[in-house]
Task: inverse folding
């Protein structure tokens, strides 16, 4: 059995003191140890984007991030994207515009899009497509996902234009 | 999928990292962004029991694009979004922006991309897959399945940054137990090396960073990547070019290629004769043709090797025509 | 939020559409006249809020107390006798709870009753690389893998069959004892209607086109996952990522020898299926076996490579079609052959073999048809059903041939198609009953919106536009298990004093939105808010049987069953309201949350009041509704294959840009005119069309299972190249179908049919762009460049010649100049 090391992780604003084998990746910790199952395991090799989470606000592949190296950073999962009972405008737009079908890739798309719009509030559709080009979706053909992110960007614009 | 057990080290300085490395000769890997190493580890490719993370080494994170200094642990995302690099060292910013996916670039580093493991579809497979085949020269076996023999590995160098840094005349700083040295990126890759041994780094040496000549702002450069999809895919061909003109004639011209052979190559033999010449469309065509003829891709990626070779000519020509001042 | 109407951007035709009539607007206006409240609205999925917050629960998200990890050992031989699988040492490893091999549960099974050739674990022989030879349950994944290292498998290699052409001939070793004659054929089909050889001999115009297709796989993002738990009360519960809980239920019972009533199958959320989760799978049974053996819950989760090996995707295909036409452009005969690589198991193969032929003619009329089809066993991972099963590769070859025939005749390919469409309410030569059919409206709408008449053969070299049509079943008319005859779908409703309606149905929502359709239908019939409707999870203990999410049957069959159930639930409500209002039941209707006099909502009682009155004496209301198909099709052998209570139709136009130097094909836009009857939820229908186009273009341009011998070279998302967001073209959906007479509220399928026209529309656009026809999929840039080089040698690239025959057909209706 492998040796465990103490790991302190801050996830969605909550601190967790864990004992983990050093080779344990963030995805496993989030899903198995913290029971935050919104983050999905699609390929385990960094080739689908289903496991994306935010680390210090930037989307990364949690299947390729050692949990131990996430110490001292702020991890945000899909469960931490919006306050309880509330929805982020990106989530709202995904619902209204039909951007989720089976839903398995959805959390990865949403955390990636949320971070991107924060830094690029007036992004074009092409820029959004590029920002989401590390996430695979097999159901939607991406059309409604891009519609939703573009619509969320408009709804979040300071002028409030719709 | 899970990772097999390893011991994880998190040194705070280059010297500490070197000391850990020298304590475990042949039994360690340096871990940078992890986006190349960890998938390979999950597939049980050349596992090492000691992993030395460079994550905490502040020196390696230094990023001073104005001075032309990029630490080896600078993330690819930082490169692609740097206005200075985009303006002065376009090829580098472009190459960084074309690596894999935005999610990979958030973690992937400059050093990791320079030293990325060579790839082959007989190598980048799971343990059971490779076991069913009887393994290969590059991992756990003794023969190559691309070019059947037992001497040489034909895995393809698949980094995007190296060709760009080569044409920009960049140098890497390397730290080892005997001190630090700088060498041109073009000389980092072992010309006698095969797909297994790739670089001239000594065992245990750490890549500290890259120095890109600042230049006087006259140099123009670009990078173009051939791949099936505009994200995810490793290069089937990467072409970097840099051009400085003076009085309508070539002052400096460099072309470097990746994604074709076991190492990236600076095509100096082909470009040198053009120094001092006018860069006519005719000369561009001839040069493209010469470059095309000199490359030898093998069939271990998605697209056919004859096509990748042909595209080498097309991409070189397009790159140079784009760089040539419009007259 | 869920239950509200979407504010989404409707893809409506603008008033500036080119001249003449606006077909889409006309259809929408006629639909609006029906006055439905929920039907036809852009309703967001009722579970979308759970999905966007990460709260939707998929199988791998579930945990059971004391749960073990189950893993399956892959074969390292593609075809070999299993001389021994020695697991003794693995069993002794600490942390290992059970190790099973094939002998434990030897009963063969399979999705079709006639072709049971799979076992829970390989038994006596392995037939493809990656087939499972042993199952381990242990405390964690690492221990399972250590146990694998202690399992000694002794193989005796057998000849490997990786070429279906070889499998069709006499072979030394049969992959299965049930293979035909002395071959490795799993199935052979021959049908002949009319006089095809005579027609071909006489035909003034004929074209022959051959297609070659790599296998493709579903590529859903959720890997297969199953949890099983055997409890001391003698029951077995299985949670699984399945499209067809009922067939899993049956197979578990057959193989494990436990009566169905003691097995409970639960379907959590499913992260995409596309046909790849529709068979009952060996790993599901092996997982249950491990749970029985250990007495503890066991979870089997696939890694991505396992998913590629389980495959059951679209068959690698070689096909060939000859189409003849008379001087008048009328199609006469179709002669078709298809050889499909079934891989190691039968799966849906008998159906696949039929579908690769019998779905060829629609949407066109032919009076002579001959089909010879073969499905070969090989030592590749099994092929099976994938979105637009049997109808995709076939459609590409046929639509390419139609395009080629237009060139031969000198006709515009749209004109040629208009000349040859099946009409509504007709019967095909192979006795399919066609009822609603708006293919004509589809092609006219696509022509008008795409600007076809000013683009076809007129765009610069390298730029092109192409058209193709489609046709697909809206549910298989014959259920797989046909004796005794059960309904295809049953829906139960329960209404209690909380005034919510619980909907129970075994139909599997795999992301396509069937739960939302259920709620829409029930809310429509009862005239209530959608959020009163809650769709219970699919659980075989409580949900009545639905035959599953395949063959595009759910909207049609479940929709009809739900409507019938809701009508049955409405009766006591009307009776209660009648008592309260003093008006006869016949005078009442339900709408706007009230039961009221027809057309007079103010004279009535609130829904809740009527419900409470109805419950007063009898307790909670329950109602049931079912849908059964009526007999269809001829009496010849195989006549039931391809019969459906309705068919979808489509006409797609695509515009492409080909980089003639690098061979890269960029699909700029697809105009997708689709006839799904009345779309119950246009938001979902568009999603199906857009997703289908994505999947179709993937197969066309870059996806393909690449084998060297029996070895799959690309079992990963890196090397199996699914299109990314930047590669999707703009899509304009044109939903111009008229109401179907038998579909629920006039609806037909939209799950699979939207795929088939996408590939040939682009293929034909490439032909228009550069004068080259690609019939070897995927059309990768290296193939394009190779073909362009051939073209150069023959004197250089030019656009194909424009049609010589002046356009006339259809002008009157489209009105475009």
Result:
């Amino acid at each position: 059995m492998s040796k465990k090391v103490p790991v302190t992780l801050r996830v969605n604003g909550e601190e967790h003191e864990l004992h983990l084998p050093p080779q344990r990746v963030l995805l496993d910790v989030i899903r198995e140890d913290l029971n935050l199952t919104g983050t999905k395991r699609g390929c385990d090799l960094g080739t689908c984007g289903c496991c994306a989470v935010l680390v210090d606000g930037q989307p990364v592949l949690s299947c390729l991030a050692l949990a131990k190296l996430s110490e001292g950073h702020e991890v945000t999962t899909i469960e931490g994207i919006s306050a309880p009972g509330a929805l982020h405008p990106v989530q709202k737009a995904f619902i209204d515009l039909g951007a989720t079908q089976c839903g398995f890739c959805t959390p990865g798309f949403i955390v990636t899009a949320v971070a991107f719009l924060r830094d690029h509030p007036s992004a074009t559709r092409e820029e959004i497509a590029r920002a989401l080009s590390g996430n695979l979706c097999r159901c939607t053909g991406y059309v409604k996902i891009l519609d939703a992110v573009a619509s969320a960007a408009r709804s979040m614009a300071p002028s409030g234009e719709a | 999928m899970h990772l097999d057990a390893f011991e994880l080290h998190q040194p705070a300085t280059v010297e500490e990292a070197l000391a850990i490395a020298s304590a475990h000769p042949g039994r360690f890997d340096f871990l940078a962004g992890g986006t190349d190493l960890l998938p390979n580890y999950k597939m049980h490719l050349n596992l090492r029991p000691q992993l030395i993370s460079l994550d905490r080494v502040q020196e390696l994170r230094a990023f001073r694009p104005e001075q032309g200094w990029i630490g080896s642990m600078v993330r690819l995302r930082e490169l692609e979004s740097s206005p200075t690099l985009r303006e002065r060292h376009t090829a580098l910013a472009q190459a960084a922006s074309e690596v894999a996916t935005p999610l990979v670039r958030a973690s992937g580093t400059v050093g990791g991309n320079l030293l990325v493991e060579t790839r082959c579809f007989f190598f980048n497979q799971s343990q059971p897959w490779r076991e069913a085949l009887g393994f290969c020269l590059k991992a756990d076996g003794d023969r190559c399945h691309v070019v059947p023999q037992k001497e040489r590995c034909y895995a393809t160098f698949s980094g995007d940054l190296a060709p760009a840094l080569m044409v920009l005349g960049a140098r890497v700083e390397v730290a080892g137990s005997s001190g630090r040295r700088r060498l041109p990126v073009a000389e980092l890759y072992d010309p006698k090396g095969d797909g297994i041994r790739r670089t001239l780094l000594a065992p245990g040496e750490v890549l500290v960073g890259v120095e890109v000549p600042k230049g006087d702002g006259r140099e123009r450069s670009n990078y173009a990547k051939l791949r099936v999809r505009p994200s995810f895919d490793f290069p089937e061909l990467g072409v970097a070019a840099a051009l400085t003109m003076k009085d309508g004639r070539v002052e400096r011209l460099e072309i470097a290629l990746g994604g074709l052979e076991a190492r990236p190559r600076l095509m100096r033999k082909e470009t040198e004769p053009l120094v001092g010449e006018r860069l006519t469309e005719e000369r561009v065509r001839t040069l493209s043709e010469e470059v095309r003829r000199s490359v030898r891709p093998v069939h271990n990626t998605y697209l056919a090797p004859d096509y990748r070779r042909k595209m080498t000519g097309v991409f070189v020509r397009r790159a140079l025509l784009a760089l040539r001042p419009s007259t | 939020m869920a239950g509200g109407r979407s504010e989404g951007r409707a893809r409506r035709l603008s008033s500036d559409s080119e001249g003449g009539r606006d077909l889409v607007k006309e259809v929408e206006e006629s639909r609006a006249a029906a006055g439905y409240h929920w039907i036809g609205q852009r309703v967001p999925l009722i579970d979308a809020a759970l999905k966007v917050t990460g709260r939707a629960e998929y199988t791998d998200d579930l945990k059971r107390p004391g749960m073990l990890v189950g893993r399956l050992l892959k074969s390292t031989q593609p075809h070999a006798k299993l001389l021994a699988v020695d697991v003794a040492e693995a069993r002794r490893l600490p942390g290992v709870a059970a190790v099973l091999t094939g002998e434990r549960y030897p009963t063969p099974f399979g999705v079709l009753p006639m072709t049971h050739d799979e076992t829970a674990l390989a038994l006596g022989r392995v037939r493809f690389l990656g087939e499972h030879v042993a199952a381990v349950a242990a405390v964690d994944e690492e221990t399972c893998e250590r146990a694998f290292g202690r399992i000694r498998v002794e193989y005796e290699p057998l000849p490997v069959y990786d070429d279906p052409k070889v499998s069709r001939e006499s072979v030394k070793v049969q992959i299965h004892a049930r293979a035909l004659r002395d071959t490795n054929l799993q199935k052979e089909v021959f049908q002949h209607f009319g006089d095809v050889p005579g027609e071909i001999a006489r035909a003034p115009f004929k074209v022959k086109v051959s297609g070659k297709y790599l296998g493709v796989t579903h590529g859903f993002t959720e890997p297969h996952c199953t949890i099983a738990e055997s409890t001391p009360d003698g029951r077995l519960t299985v949670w699984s990522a399945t499209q067809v809980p009922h067939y899993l239920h049956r197979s578990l019972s057959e193989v494990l020898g436990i009566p169905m009533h003691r097995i409970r199958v639960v379907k959590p959320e499913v992260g995409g299926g596309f046909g790849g989760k529709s068979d009952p799978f060996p790993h599901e049974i092996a997982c249950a076996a491990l749970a029985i053996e250990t007495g503890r819950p066991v979870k089997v989760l696939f890694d991505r490579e396992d998913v590629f090996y389980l495959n059951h995707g679209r068959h690698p295909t070689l096909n060939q079609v000859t189409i003849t036409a008379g001087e008048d452009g009328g199609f006469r005969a179709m002669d078709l052959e298809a050889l499909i690589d079934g891989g190691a198991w039968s799966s849906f193969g008998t159906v696949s073999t039929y579908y690769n032929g019998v779905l060829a003619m629609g949407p066109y009329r032919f009076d002579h048809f001959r089909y010879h089809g073969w499905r070969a066993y090989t030592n590749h991972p099994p092929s099976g059903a994938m979105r637009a099963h049997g109808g995709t590769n076939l459609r590409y070859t046929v639509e390419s041939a139609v395009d080629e025939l237009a060139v031969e005749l000198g006709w515009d390919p749209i004109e040629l198609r208009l000349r040859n469409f099946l009409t509504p309410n007709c019967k095909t030569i192979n006795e399919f009953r066609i009822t609603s059919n708006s293919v004509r409206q589809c092609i006219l709408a696509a022509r008008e919106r795409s600007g076809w008449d000013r683009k076809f053969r007129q765009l610069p070299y390298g730029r092109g536009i192409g058209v193709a049509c489609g046709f697909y079943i809206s549910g298989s008319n014959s259920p797989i298990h046909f004796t005794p005859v059960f309904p295809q779908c049953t829906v139960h409703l329960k209404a209690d004093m909380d005034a919510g309606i619980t909907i129970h149905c075994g139909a599997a929502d795999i992301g396509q939105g069937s739960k939302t359709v259920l709620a829409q239908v029930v809310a429509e019939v009862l005239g209530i808010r959608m959020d009163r409707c809650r769709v219970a999870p699919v659980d075989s203990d409580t949900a009545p049987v639905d035959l599953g999410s395949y063959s595009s049957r759910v909207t049609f069959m479940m929709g009809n069953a739900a409507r019938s159930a809701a009508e049955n639930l409405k009766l006591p409500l009307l009776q209660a309201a009648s008592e309260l209002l003093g008006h006869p039941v016949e005078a009442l209707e339900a709408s706007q949350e009230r039961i009221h006099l027809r057309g007079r909502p103010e004279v009535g009682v609130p829904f809740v009041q009527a419900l409470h009155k109805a419950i007063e004496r009898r307790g909670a209301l329950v109602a049931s509704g079912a849908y059964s198909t009526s007999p269809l099709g001829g009496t010849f052998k195989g006549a039931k294959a391809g019969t459906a209570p309705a068919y979808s139709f489509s006409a797609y136009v695509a515009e492409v840009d080909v980089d003639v130097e690098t061979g890269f094909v960029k699909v700029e836009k697809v105009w997708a005119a689709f006839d799904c009857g009345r779309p119950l939820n246009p938001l979902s229908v568009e999603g199906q069309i857009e997703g289908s186009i994505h999947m179709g273009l993937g197969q066309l341009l870059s996806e393909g299972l690449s084998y060297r011998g029996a070895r799959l070279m690309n079992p990963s998302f890196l090397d199996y190249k699914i299109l990314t967001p930047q590669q999707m073209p703009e899509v304009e959906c044109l939903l111009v179908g008229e109401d179907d007479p038998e579909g629920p509220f006039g609806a037909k399928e939209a799950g699979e049919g939207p795929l088939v026209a996408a590939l040939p529309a682009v293929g034909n656009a490439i032909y228009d762009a550069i004068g080259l026809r690609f019939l070897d999929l995927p059309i990768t840039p290296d193939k394009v460049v190779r073909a362009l080089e051939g073209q150069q040698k023959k004197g250089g690239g030019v656009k194909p010649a424009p049609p010589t025959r002046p356009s006339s057909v259809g002008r009157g209706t489209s009105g475009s100049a």
User: Anything to note?
Assistant: The beta strands of chain A are 5-11, 14-20, 52-55, 58-61, 74-76.
